[in-house]
Amino acid sequence: MGIGGDWYNDVGSHMRITVDPTGGIRGIYVSATGHAAGTYPLVGRYDSAALADHGATLGWTVAWHNGRSDAGSVTSWNGQYYKDGGERICTTWLLTASANPANTWEATAVGQDVFTRDRPPQELIDQRLRRTGSVSHPHTAGRSTPEVDA
Questions:
Q1: Where is region (Disordered) located (predicted)?
Q2: The pTM is what?
């Protein structure tokens, strides 16, 4: 099937991506956690010439700002797409929130997500959130604006 299509991470967030033959990635991201209501555009790149027995490297970024809210943060995922008995994208992410210079040291969180083609059952999502509490989506509503009708 390839990298394009629908993907879900282990906390139930959804992305739909399209790829072009030159290595471009575009799509949408819908967070299932945090304070990031609505749909967000994503953009990235992938290695269109990956070796046959290796994962295809890829990365994409979401700025947590849309017509409904502004979380003052950006997340970038980097990882590899594997098709070895099942498709998955294994990533490491960086979530950086806007901060004043004195608090820059605490502005970036790091974690990992695994994306698959199927949304995980709710009980597994709940277990993941209890176990780690760390997600790649904004946690605070400090910069959020009131929701508006789309």
A1: 127-150
A2: 0.83
